[in-house]
Amino acid sequence: MEHEQKKDITAPPFGCFPEPIYQSLSESSLIIYFGDQINECVVNRVQQARQLIEQCCHHLLLDVIPSYTSIHLTYDVLQTEYDWFQPQLARLLNDAFIDEPCTTPIRIKTQGVLASDEVTLEAPLVVEVPIYYGEEVAFDLPAVAAHSGLSEEEVIKVHSEMEYTVYTIGFSPGFAFLGNIDERIAMPRMQTPRTHVPAGSLGIANRQTAVYPVAVPGGWRIIGRTPMNLVDYSLPELSPFQVGGKVRFKPIDKAAFLSLGGQLDKVGSHS
Amino acid sequence: MSLRVDHAGVLALLVDRGRRGYQHVGVSVGGPMDEHAYLWANRLLGNKQSATQIEITYGLFRCQFEEDTHIALTGANLQATLNDKPIRSWQTYAVTAGDVLAFKTPHAGLRSYLAVKGGFQVEPHLGSTTTLMRDHIGGLRQDGQALSKTDLIPFNRYAVKHRGQALPEAFIPDYTAKVELGVMLSYQFNQFDMSVIKRFFTSEYTISQHIDRMGYRLSGHAIHYEGQPLISEGISYGAIQISGDGQPIILMCDRQTIGGYPKVGCVTALDMNKLSQRGSGDTVMFRPIKAQTARNDMRAFERFFMT
């Protein structure tokens, strides 16, 4: 899909397309691409566009999947159709972006004829996740330390000092892909995944990091565990995370981990 | 009162039209594999279109009704019997307390739908009763478990005089017929070589052993992707994903929400119903279809079942 470059406007932020690219996928779904790089500028647009779309088009939509550089929409074919909906989306998203993540809510006038003529852009959600980096739960911390050439204490420090961005949520409910971790502590997935990774485990895979909300098989390098419940089916949003939002890890000691309900169950061996 | 499961068979699941509005946190839609058969079962009974039913895959399921009601059976011919007498699919029956409904193995098709008047009365989980086994969501106990022996599935007594409803023969799909799947070209299709796409539409593919509610893996002429590596993105129902070895996987209703494999397009929703009644060893072909045509067909289908 070729797009004419507009030369008279300021260049879009790194990795972002000058204008979103729309594509019809199936009878009831479409995708909007905002860029072609995994970075904060692009996911910031995804986060903002998702808010605009959800506030203006909720009556037409069945499902929304924001992911890294795109938003996938499933719409109700009895309520709208692509040839009408796509131009409306384009009008809504045209020039609507703010290049820095907003820090306070911003009201925006929309030019569309969709449900709302004014929307609010909220600042990205920041979630603090307590992590116990102790040896009983940090199965791969020695390996990550050896791979990086840093001490275990340094790995913990490097990992917990950064603020991360949620790039997408998927794989299993509430599993948030966070990036980017410091290059020094990056490490590929295990060759053979574990058959059982306990719920709450904090993992590393290349330059991504994530917490397993529930116990599943998995191959990420495990360097700690949170006592926090990261998928709660009784909550309306299920997950504390939001694509485009921020996550900070706060190191806690064993006593705090246990008092917050943390469990020390073991990892599953290779099958 | 309830329906009591005496044999769960290969796979029996409670389903409604699926779980909407949670894909952004990674929860799959799920729902009936064959919406066409599912919607007809509710329609024949005058149920709400989203009433909860039992999807019986492959058969060997047996249950007993503890109360009078009317039932509808649609979809595959799994050689069902009511009190040991063979009964046909695509029509309604009156059952009385103590009646036994049993299924043998597939004669045509793979999945049968059992509806009761008013639907099964099951507590929704995240807005839906659909069972999502992988993520432990929905179903009888909101834990994602498939139905098992001794389960009691509640429904409301219905003892009104039965006036049988049946789908006219001409509308009953033949699940043994060869199937050609309509494909809307989308996603990365223009990053594939045109000759590769041409081969895809002129080759026959066999449904492999690896089929489940997440995806149908096919085997046939390999389609190699030489485009750019992909960034994970949302996956549509019916998306045709090309795996590393070039074989297509068609993503079904329990598919994961995101994925990073290239996709050539999407099988139409109406043809996905047909595919879900085919099993390992059956062959399929693909044909390109205009997006507008597919949308019109789907809208007509949805309108029909809405009224």
Written overview of the protein:
The complex is a heterodimer of chains A (271) and B (307). In chain A, strand 3 and strand 4 form a beta hairpin. The N terminus of chain A is likely disordered. In chain A, the strands form four sheets. Chain A has a seven-stranded mixed beta sheet. In chain A, strands 1-2-4-3 form a four-stranded antiparallel beta sheet, covered by helices on one side. Chain A has a two-stranded antiparallel sheet with strand order 5-6. Chain A is 20% helix and 31% strand. Chain A starts with 15 loop residues before the first strand and ends in a 12-residue tail after the last helix. With 271 residues, chain A is α+β, with helices and mostly antiparallel strands. Chain B has 307 residues and is of the alpha+beta class. In chain B, strand 16 and strand 17 form a beta hairpin. Chains A and B meet through strand 1, strand 3 and strand 4 of A and strand 15 and helix 4 of B.
Give a count of the beta strands of chain A, DSSP E runs of length 2 or more.
Answer: 15
Percent range for helical residues of chain B? 10-25%
Query: Helix- and strand-based class of chain B?
Result: alpha+beta
The amount of helix of chain A comes to 10-25%
Strand content of chain A: 25-35%
**If helices are DSSP runs of H or I spanning 4 or more residues, what is the number of helices of chain B?**
4
Q: Mean pLDDT of chain B, rounded to whole units?
A: 96
Assess the beta-strand content of chain B as a share of residues: 25-35%
